[in-house]
Structures are given as C-alpha cells and as structure tokens.
UniProtKB/TrEMBL annotation:
<dbReference type="Pfam" id="PF02880">
    <property type="entry name" value="PGM_PMM_III"/>
</dbReference>
<keyword id="KW-0479">Metal-binding</keyword>
<feature type="domain" description="Alpha-D-phosphohexomutase alpha/beta/alpha">
    <location>
        <begin position="319"/>
        <end position="445"/>
    </location>
</feature>
<dbReference type="InterPro" id="IPR005845">
    <property type="entry name" value="A-D-PHexomutase_a/b/a-II"/>
</dbReference>
<keyword id="KW-0413">Isomerase</keyword>
<protein>
    <recommendedName>
        <fullName>phosphoglucomutase (alpha-D-glucose-1,6-bisphosphate-dependent)</fullName>
        <ecNumber>5.4.2.2</ecNumber>
    </recommendedName>
</protein>
<dbReference type="InterPro" id="IPR016066">
    <property type="entry name" value="A-D-PHexomutase_CS"/>
</dbReference>
<keyword id="KW-0313">Glucose metabolism</keyword>
<dbReference type="InterPro" id="IPR005843">
    <property type="entry name" value="A-D-PHexomutase_C"/>
</dbReference>
<dbReference type="Pfam" id="PF00408">
    <property type="entry name" value="PGM_PMM_IV"/>
</dbReference>
<dbReference type="InterPro" id="IPR005844">
    <property type="entry name" value="A-D-PHexomutase_a/b/a-I"/>
</dbReference>
<comment type="similarity">
    <text>Belongs to the phosphohexose mutase family.</text>
</comment>
<keyword id="KW-0460">Magnesium</keyword>
<dbReference type="Pfam" id="PF02878">
    <property type="entry name" value="PGM_PMM_I"/>
</dbReference>
<dbReference type="InterPro" id="IPR036900">
    <property type="entry name" value="A-D-PHexomutase_C_sf"/>
</dbReference>
<feature type="domain" description="Alpha-D-phosphohexomutase alpha/beta/alpha">
    <location>
        <begin position="203"/>
        <end position="306"/>
    </location>
</feature>
<feature type="domain" description="Alpha-D-phosphohexomutase C-terminal">
    <location>
        <begin position="504"/>
        <end position="549"/>
    </location>
</feature>
Length: 567
C-alpha cells in the first residue's frame, strides 16, 4: 500500500475534529512525511511528534499499537489476560486521552486493566507491574523530548521495557491490522480498575529503603539546603513525598515548574541532560545560596543536578559524574557497615563512562556492560536473581538514568533524588562540596570526560542515510583517531571484537547496530543510530591526568569523528 492509499483512507475516515482539521491543511510534502510509514516501534516503544498521520502519534496509532499488544496477550492465554496491564501517563498534551484509548482497546479484548486516574512517574509504573504481578505495562510519555512529542512505552511482566521478541510480536501485530479505524473500544471500560493511593503508598515504602545512612540524614538533612524542579512533570507529586519521608525538608521547589504543563513553557526542552533546563532552578539556588539543584524530567525517570562551587556559581554535572559519585558513596557505605557482598556488581551500558567502573573495581565490585536501553539492565537484574552469580548494587546509563534498588526495573529519578540528597548531606558533614568530592575521585582514578553528539537524519530517507553511514564506518576499519591507535573494534551487529593483530572474540551482548572503538590511551568512541529518534549518536569517552588534558582530547576526537561522519 502506498502512502497515497493510506492518506486516502484517513481522508475518508471519521477522525476527531483536531486531526481532521490538521489533515486538510497538510501540504503535499507534509502529507508524504505524515503517511509514508508507521511510526517506528523501537528500543523503548513508540515515540514521535503528535499530529495526524501514521508517522505521528495520535489516538488512531495508539489504538493500533494497543490492538497489536492485545493480540499478543490473547495469544499468551487466559492467565495473561487475567494478570492484565497497568497504564500510567505523564503531563504531556493528550497523554490522559491516549491512556484512556489504550484502556478501552484492552478492555474490549477482555483484558484486565489497572489505570491511574492522574499522572504518575515511569518508575512507579514499572514498580506497579511487578507489585500487581501484571502481564504488561503501558506508559504514555515521550520522556524528555520536546513538547510536540509524545510516546508509548510497553513493559513486560518483570517491570522492564519489553524484550526484543515481545517487541517483534507487537510490530508483527501492527502490520496484521488491516484497518486501524475498525478497532473495537469498550466505552464502558468494563475491565478497567482505577488504582492510585494503594500503589503510591507501596512504591513510597520501597523508596524509603534507598537511604543508606538514616543517622546521617537525621543529623544533616534539615540543614541541607537545595532546590528541586520537576520540570512541569510527574516528579512534583511523588518526588516531594519521597524527599519528605526520607527526612529532607529544607528544600525549595521551583514554583513555575511545579505547574503541570504539557507545553513546558519555561524551558525549550524539559530535559535535565540540557544545562539550560536547570537555569531557572539555579537562579533560585543563587538567591538562597543553596547547596545543590536537582531536576527530574516529565516522567521522572531521569535526574540531573547542579552543585554549588566555592565562588557561589553552580556546576551542572553530567550523568556519568552523578553515577560515579553515587557508586562511590554506595560502595563506601556498604564497606563501612560490612554489607558489601563478595559477588557485587554494577550494570551499565556500552556507551557509558568507565569512571564508575574504575571506582567499582577498587571495591572488588564487577561491572557488566549491556546494550543501550534500560531493559537490558533489567534483564541482567533478572539473570542475577535467577543464577545467583552476582548481587545487584547499582545500574546506570550516561543519559541521566539510575536505578539503586531493583523494586522498579527501569531508571528511577525518585530513587536518585533521595540518594543524591543523602550524598549531599554526607559531603556537608565532611565540610566538603560535591565538587570537592568529585575532584578527589578524579585525582584517584583519572579525569574522565564524556560527550554525546547527535546528528539529525529527518524525513523519508533518514534511516537509509544512517544505515549507509554505519556501513561506511564498517568498511573503513578505523586504524587511528587523531594521534591514538585503535586497539580494538567492537561491532555489536555481528557480536565480534577484532584487535589490531586481527584476533577475534565473541561479544556477549545481543546483536545491535553499534560500533565501538577502544583507543590506546584508554579512551573510546561509539556510533549508534537512536532507537527512538531519527538521529545518529556519536559517543566519546576520554581519560587523562588532568581536566585540561581530558577536555583537549575530547575536542580533538570530536572534530576527527565529525569530519568523518560529514565527509
């Protein structure tokens, strides 16, 4: 079927008024972009621009993907239908509407649905799937994306994002639906149960266990002064409750950003990875001489932070720096109270810093690397529980995602909020700042610096252009980057690592379209097409003896790789 055929079907359909009006206004080029494909279902579900068309997210596409999920649950048997699906949503435009459509499609199949009546964080959805022993979960969110986007994340019974086999079943199910406009919806919601306080309380009870040293919080928590911004999202409700129950009360919430607003009017992007998103919170902090700033994204699965320096300015930390500090604090505390297990392990992604790994090694703790996507960290946690070969201690991704305790199986900014505040209390008791603590770690382990650069490939040919670039790099077989030799090349698409001498070894991770280069000085570079956006991501990680040297390396490697990508 051509995009013109699909367009004609939509033009003849009884669309909601907003979609019908938008459809009439599309230019020919906009029509092609809106209908040339179904919005891809990638590593974390379906995410994209809201609007009319199959390449957009709207009530029609939400019904379509839910129908495919329902078919998968039907095939899994009556027990799966009875176990049901938990549904939550964030503060974005149309999120509540999309959650209701998903509920009604599932209910029409006789599938039990547990739905929150108002917005909740992604990690609480992950926890709720496990707590209720549900078959699956749906989170309506585009996480930290711009305001025009929304998304549809699907979770498995373990509370982690759906594994590849289940994702493929949903993709196949979407392709099998002949007409998305004939999907049945149960307007009575006969199989839908609203859940709120019970799950909030159960989740918060687990969050309480994240604290490592309650005596420290009792001593320093009331004096610790910080600013918190939920960036117009779900953290405003649960995040404050989590902080207060832990014993942190001397904080200020950014009033303008505590307002639930799907337009995110105070920020260009509601993304704690972007220093600009913390600007308003830092203004608050400067007026109060606060010790730190913390921010959560709209669905509260990512946390960013800025810390006060001696001159009164604020340093925005990277996700890798936050992870390194957390790992050091956790492991030091466990060693001190003699609870550090002999088989302890942290889990991280193949494109995250080696900083935390070096710290873990010093404590006799292993690091296991997984593919990008927190579902792979969740799968590793499940493996630990099954095989008992490692004890899970911490998981993180460079993109500001952390998981302290595995009662949720996705990144959890609410847990991170509590632990980060506790770390601040720890350094305050020592008469130090976070910056002091970070410098101590760099002096001990080396100066680690990382950067992610995204290259946009929008439009119909975007995915083909990215694929061609990856093929070009595979054929080039890089020997040097700048003045550094490439000691080994890892190609996760064929699960092999080849060193300079030609020796080959098998990689343990599943197949993925990722290339990673290990350099002679311990630095590394990776290339990966995004699974949720039309972007090619370049990851750079360097280590040096000083901050100046690390910055210089990073700048050199970025320039070399950018030239190769754009050649």
């Amino acid at each position: 079927m051509t995009y013109q055929d699909t367009l004609a079907r939509w033009q003849q359909a009884d669309l909601p008024a907003d979609l019908a009006a938008e459809l009439k206004q599309l230019s020919p080029a906009e029509q092609e972009d809106a209908f040339y494909q179904n919005l891809p279902f990638g590593t974390a579900g379906m995410r994209g621009q809201m609007g009319v068309g199959t390449n957009r997210i709207n009530v029609v596409m939400v019904a379509l993907v839910t129908e495919a999920l329902a078919a998968y649950i039907d095939q899994s048997g009556s027990a799966a239908k009875k176990a049901g699906v938990v549904i939550a949503f964030d503060s974005r435009q149309h999120s509540k509407e999309f959650a209701q459509v998903a509920s009604r499609v599932l209910s029409a199949h006789g599938i039990k649905v547990y739905r929150f009546s108002s917005l909740r964080p992604t990690p609480e959805l992950s926890f709720s799937v496990r707590h209720l022993k549900a078959f699956a979960g749906i989170m309506i969110t585009a996480s930290h994306n711009p305001k025009q986007d929304n998304g549809y994340k699907v979770y498995g019974a373990d509370g982690g994002q759906m594994v590849p086999q289940a994702v493929q079943a949903v993709i196949d199910g979407m392709a099998a639906v002949e007409n998305g406009f004939t999907i049945a919806q149960d307007e009575t919601e006969a199989n839908v149960q609203v859940v709120d306080d019970e799950l909030d309380n159960a989740y918060l009870a687990e969050v309480k266990t994240v604290s490592v040293d309650q005596n420290l919080i009792q001593k320093e928590g009331a004096d610790l002064k910080f600013v918190y911004t939920p960036l117009h999202g779900t953290g405003q409700y649960i995040g404050e409750k989590a902080l207060q129950q832990a014993g942190f009360t001397n904080y200020t919430i950014v009033k303008e950003q505590a307002e639930l607003d799907g337009d995110f009017k105070t920020v260009k992007k509601p993304n704690p990875e972007d220093p600009a998103a913390l600007s308003l919170a830092i203004e608050y902090a400067k007026k109060q001489a606060a010790d730190l700033v913390v921010a959560t994204d709209p669905d509260a699965d990512r946390m960013g932070a800025a810390v006060r320096l001696a001159d009164g300015s604020y340093q925005v930390l990277s996700g890798n720096q936050i992870a390194g500090l957390m790992v050091n604090y956790l492991l030091a505390a466990k060693k001190k109270n003699q609870t550090l297990p002999e088989n302890g392990a942290i889990v991280t992604s193949i494109v995250s810093s080696r900083f935390a790994s070096e710290i873990a090694k010093n404590y006799g703790v292993a690091t296991l690397d997984v593919l990008t996507g927190f579902k792979y960290i969740a799968a590793m946690i499940d493996r630990f529980e099954e095989k008992k070969d490692y004890t899970y201690l911490f998981g993180f991704e460079e993109s500001f995602g952390y998981l302290v305790k595995p009662f949720a199986h996705d990144k959890d900014a609410i847990q991170a909020l509590v632990l980060f505040a506790e770390m601040a209390a720890y350094y305050k008791e020592k008469g130090q700042s976070f910056a002091d603590g970070l410098k101590e770690l760099y002096d001990q382990y080396g100066y680690f610096e990382e950067k992610t650069v995204a290259f946009d490939f929008p439009g119909i040919n975007g995915h083909e252009e990215m694929a061609a670039l990856m093929t070009k790099f595979r054929n080039q077989k890089l020997a040097t980057v700048g003045d550094q030799l490439v000691l080994a090349t890892q190609d996760f698409a064929n699960q092999t690592q080849i060193d300079r001498a030609g020796a080959e070894k098998k990689l343990p991770q599943p197949k993925a379209n990722v290339l990673k280069y290990w350099l002679a000085d311990g630095s590394w570079i990776a290339l990966r097409p995004s699974g949720t956006e039309p972007k090619l991501k370049l990851y750079l990680g360097v280590v040096a003896d000083s901050q100046v040297e690390a910055d210089a390396k990073l700048q050199t490697f970025e320039a070399v790789m950018e030239e190769k990508i754009q050649a």
